[in-house]
């Protein structure tokens, strides 16, 4: 057990207003993109989270000057003096995040070589990087895996290529984008991921001077250009964080307004939220006018009273139900009447956290079968990737150890919804992706304390 523990006195509905900033899964990639330019870039609304610190550290090691801008959350990146960093210096960041893999293309373009430390990130399955390596090799990179990390060179430069992803991986799509924009010639990527964060990264790259066409049927075509400039960008808001607070409102019988949440990016979540019996209202942003200060919009989520209803859902790539929305929502599903079914089709081992919920009184059974309409890659491979949740169950307090980021937030929600006092160990992991979550909990009236 660690000292890193939060004591949660559960049973109080969360109520109030919080704000989400730029999406973690875009901001960190936009920061890497700044390395590709020969002019400064400016990114707004950057959340103070661990992943941002890791990417900032890696950029600084490679000579990018990173400074805080005038606005809170604004970062300015000056890549005028990009330089090599030593393996030892880079290895300080080993095991801390998965973003370093995306430095491959930009460093090869800027320096002709790259060293990538061992990756970190959440333990939600094996999380291989074979698509990344295959794509990089097709661009012309030479990839050497060593015990301390991965060394890459590009002896004859990087050249456009045709590549089809075996699965629409978010990271591998970003890898191809960040490499193809400065590669010589045209790249065609088939079966690409088209998550809103990827479209926003394309917007960033386009602002820098890239030529990228997003065709129908998951085909992206990139025309390499000889140079890129800087960008000024306000990222899309964090739709995973917004949904996490929505699930917390529902599970605790509360009401939370998430300022900054964007309806268009959350449509699939909103449909499920309503099917379960949750209520929400989209509030639009009002620009300031003479005599009126204006107002930031968002989405207000609440439990309207009465019983919640069981649902069947499958996680999927965009525009499906995000895998990262699954864990927080399952806590609310423990309060729904009937049998809910969740088929996790993105990661093979993302249901382990349900054991902790069972310990708190939930009734969740996990299965190896595909319990859903879409047969997935894991059905015949013996992975427990479907769950049946029988509800409603009264949750009681427990001592919990946080296993990964999203599951960690779901543990926290469960502790907030449960009667009694829980101790949640390893909460610092939540700082990887949720800015100021303890301050936000306090703003929503949660009774939590550090012992
Ligand atoms: C991104 O991870 C996100 N992380 C994840 O969010 C998110 O869950 C995931 O996309 C799916 O939306 C970041 O953006 C930093 P993938 P990524 O490549 O890019 C398999 C969070 O909590 N695969 O789309 O690593 C892989 O094993 C995190 O914020 C290969 O087989 O995800 C998985 O089953 C967790 N070989 C599937 O593809 C590869 O080379 C999807 O992974 C790459 C991926």
Architecture overview:
- The chain is an alpha/beta fold and 451 residues long.
- 29% of the residues lie in helices and 23% in strands.
- It contains 13 helices and 24 strands.
- Strands 17, 18, 19, 20 and 21 form a 5-stranded mixed beta sheet that branches. A 4-stranded mixed beta sheet has the order 22-23-1-24, with helices on one face. A 4-stranded mixed beta sheet has the order 2-14-16-15, with helices on one face.
- The relative contact order is 0.15.
- The structure holds ligand EPZ.
Rg calculated over all Cα atoms? 22 Å
- Quick one: overall form? globular
Profile the largest sheet.
5 strands, mixed
Count of beta strands: 24
Low-confidence stretches: none
Q: Give the percentage of residues in beta strands.
A: 15-25%
The number of helical segments is 13
Helical amount? 25-40%
What is the residue-averaged pLDDT?
95
The structural class is alpha/beta
Query: Hetero groups bound?
Result: ligand EPZ
Distance between the termini: 14 Å
Looking at this protein, list some descriptive labels.
451 residues; alpha/beta; five-stranded mixed sheet; four-stranded mixed sheet; 24 strands; binds ligand EPZ; cell division
């Amino acid at each position: 057990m660690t000292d890193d523990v939060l004591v949660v006195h559960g049973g109080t509905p969360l109520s109030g207003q919080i704000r989400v900033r730029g999406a973690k899964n875009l901001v960190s990639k936009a920061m890497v993109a700044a390395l590709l330019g020969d002019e400064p870039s400016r990114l707004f609304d950057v959340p103070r989270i661990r992943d941002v610190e890791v990417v900032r550290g890696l950029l600084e090691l490679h000579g990018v000057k990173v400074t805080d801008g005038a606005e809170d959350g604004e970062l300015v990146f000056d890549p005028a003096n990009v330089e090599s960093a030593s393996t030892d210096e880079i290895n300080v960041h080993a095991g801390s995040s998965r973003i370093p893999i995306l430095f491959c293309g930009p460093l090869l373009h800027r320096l002709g070589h790259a060293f990538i430390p061992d990756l970190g990130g959440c333990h939600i399955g094996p999380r291989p990087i074979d698509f990344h390596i295959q794509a990089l090799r097709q661009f012309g990179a030479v990839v050497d895996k060593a015990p301390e990390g991965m060394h890459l060179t590009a002896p004859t430069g990087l050249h456009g290529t045709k590549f089809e992803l075996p699965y629409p991986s978010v990271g591998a799509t970003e890898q191809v984008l960040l490499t193809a924009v400065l590669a010589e010639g045209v790249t065609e990527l088939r079966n690409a991921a088209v998550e809103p964060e990827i479209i926003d990264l394309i917007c960033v790259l386009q602002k820098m001077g890239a030529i990228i066409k997003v065709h129908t049927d998951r085909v992206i075509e990139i025309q390499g250009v000889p140079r890129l400039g800087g960008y000024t960008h306000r990222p899309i808001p964090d739709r995973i964080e917004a949904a996490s607070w929505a699930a917390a409102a529902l599970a605790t019988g509360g009401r939370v307004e998430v300022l900054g949440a964007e309806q268009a990016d959350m449509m699939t979540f909103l449909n499920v939220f309503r099917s379960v019996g949750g209520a929400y209202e989209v509030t639009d942003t009002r620009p300031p006018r003479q005599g009126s200060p204006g107002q930031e919009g968002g989405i207000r989520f609440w439990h309207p009273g009465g019983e919640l209803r069981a649902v069947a859902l499958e996680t999927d790539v965009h525009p499906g139900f995000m895998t990262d929305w699954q864990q927080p929502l399952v806590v609310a599903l423990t309060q729904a009447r009937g049998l809910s079914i969740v088929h996790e089709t993105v990661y093979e081992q993302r249901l382990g956290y349900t054991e902790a919920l069972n310990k708190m009184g939930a009734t969740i059974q996990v299965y190896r079968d595909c319990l859903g309409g879409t047969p997935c890659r894991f059905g015949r491979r013996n992975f427990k990737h479907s769950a049946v949740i029988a509800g409603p169950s009264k949750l009681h307090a427990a001592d919990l150890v946080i296993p990964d980021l999203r599951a960690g937030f779901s543990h926290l929600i469960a502790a907030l919804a449960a009667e009694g006092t829980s101790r949640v160990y390893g909460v610092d992991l939540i700082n990887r992706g949720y800015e100021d979550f303890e301050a936000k909990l306090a703003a929503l009236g949660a009774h939590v304390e550090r012992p």
